[in-house]
Amino acid sequence: MERFTGLIGIALILGLAFLVSNNKRKINLRLVISGLALQIVIAILILKVQPIRDVFGFLGRCMQHIEQFAKKGVDFVYGGVAAVGFDGSVQNYNTPHVFVFAFNVTATIILVCILVAVFYHLGIMQRIVAIIAKAMNFIMRVSGAEALSNVASAFVGQIEAQVMIRPYLKGMTNSELLASMSGSLACIAGGILIVYANMGAQAGMDLAPTLIMASLMAAPGALVISKIVFPETEVSETMQTIKLNVHKEYTNLIDAISHGAGDGFKIAMNVIAMLIGFIALIALIDFTLLHIGHLFNPHFDLTLDWIFGKIFYPFAWAMGIPETDVSHAATLLGQKLTVNEFLAFKNLTAIPNYIQTPKGIVIISTAICGFANFSSVGMQIGGIGALAPERRADLARLGLKALFCGTLASYLSASIAGILM
Asked: Which of 192, 200, 327, 352 could disulfide-pair with 205, CB 3.0 to 4.6 Å?
């Protein structure tokens, strides 16, 4: 019966979305059912159809090669720097299998951003996004702008996905705007996905197929949840229309590579700054909580992890995570929502046997594979607001709703994956 616990998770997630819906009678059941069916089909293809799973396993190995290629570049910059290897000995950074988070992760992000910029300049990225968006538009009957934005979010960053629909932002309905924001929070950018897959590989986990599945499932999942929370009641300018903005931002290929490297460096430095700041802040909060707990009981170690473990326990259990892993999984859910997914993946992959069961690893890695956290909401309001200043007030009003929808969309994908495991 444990296999079907995820059905409780699906009911809980859809029930929460329905509870906060602003117009329950206008919910489009066809859209909800077709979106759930699309998620299930994606999960079955990747988890159960061996040839498809082999393809995604191959993509995972390609991701590991990308990290190796990135290391070639960073070796030139950091070659000669001493690092502590997995066996505890001090080694040259160039030594194979030596992993330093700040060096390896930033290098991978920069290389992937370069590749994305090159693919975008050549028009390859736009064509891939448009093809998938047309399929989702046909199946779910959502507007072209929503489909494009949500599909693009599975490949590029939160703001970059909105750049692709920049001409439509001004005239989008609030329901469309929420759907686009939710999709960007539920999905994960390709560059970050590769980083997480390689972090898992370092820990002996093959996370690549699961993470690709999670990001692909998040696109229809975010539309399902957002359209329950904020059903469409207006006429969209892009209903049944898929027309991608193909304006090229780069002069030539060299310009694309240069901009990609610059953008990658900014993202990498932002990741490092957030991790340093948030982890330091968590240490400060834990220090305070520990002393508060000891006031009541000298043996009670009150921490944020303990609090997260209690608050998110029902969600972790309802998604079908095995009992032995529920407490730790709940902690990761809390870390991902309140801090960011980087910290959650770092703890998942760096702490030996933190999640012990293969099913638990698949479900929790799917649930935390997304940008839905409080800091990302601020980034979206600022980033999309710069693209469409006249919508800034709407963005601010929809920010927390988008966080709610993006989080539930990831949990919905995790619940479906748990049933199929």
From this structure: 200
| Residues contacting residue 113 through CB under 8 Å, at least 6 positions apart | 191, 260, 261, 263, 264, 267
Which of helix, strand or coil describes residue 83? strand
Tell me how far apart the terminal alpha carbons of the chain are, to the nearest angstrom: 12
Write out the two tokens for 302. 């009150």
Query: Where in the chain are the domains?
Result: 4-420
* CA pair distance 115, 125, nearest whole angstrom: 10
In whole angstroms, give the CA distance from residue 73 to residue 66: 11
- What phi and psi, each to the nearest 5 degrees, are found at residue 150? -70, -40
Residues facing 83 on adjacent strands: 91
Closest CA to 145 of 382, 369, 387: 387
pTM of the model: 0.83
Which of helix, strand or coil describes residue 363? Answer: helix
Q: What are phi and psi of 235, to 5 degrees?
A: -95, 120
Q: So what's the pLDDT on residue 244?
A: 56
| CA-based nearest residue to 196, from 108, 316, 256 | 108
Q: Which DSSP state fits 164? A: T
For residues 92 and 80, what is the distance between their CA atoms, to the nearest angstrom? 6
> pLDDT averaged over consecutive 10-residue blocks of the chain (421 residues)?
81 94 91 92 88 78 76 78 68 68 77 82 77 78 81 76 76 89 87 80 80 88 94 77 61 87 81 78 87 86 84 92 92 87 86 89 92 82 80 87 94 92 78
- Residue 137: its pLDDT value, please? 75
Residue 245's pLDDT is: 54
Measuring CA to CA, which residue among 126, 119, 108 is closest to residue 193?
108
Of the candidates 336, 341, 292, 331, which has an alpha carbon nearest to the alpha carbon of residue 310?
331
Those residues whose C-beta lies under 8 Å from the C-beta of residue 266, and which sit 6 or more positions away, are: none
- Residues, the chain: 421
Within 56-106, strands assigned E span 82-84, 90-92
The whole-angstrom separation of Cα 237 and Cα 251 is 31
Instruction: Kindly report the backbone phi and psi dihedral angles of residue 83, in degrees, each rounded to the nearest multiple of 5, phi listed first.
Output: -140, 155
Per-residue confidence (pLDDT) for residue 95, from 0 to 100: 67
Phi, psi dihedrals of residue 393, rounded to the nearest 5°? -65, -40
For residue 19, what are its two tokens? 């509870």
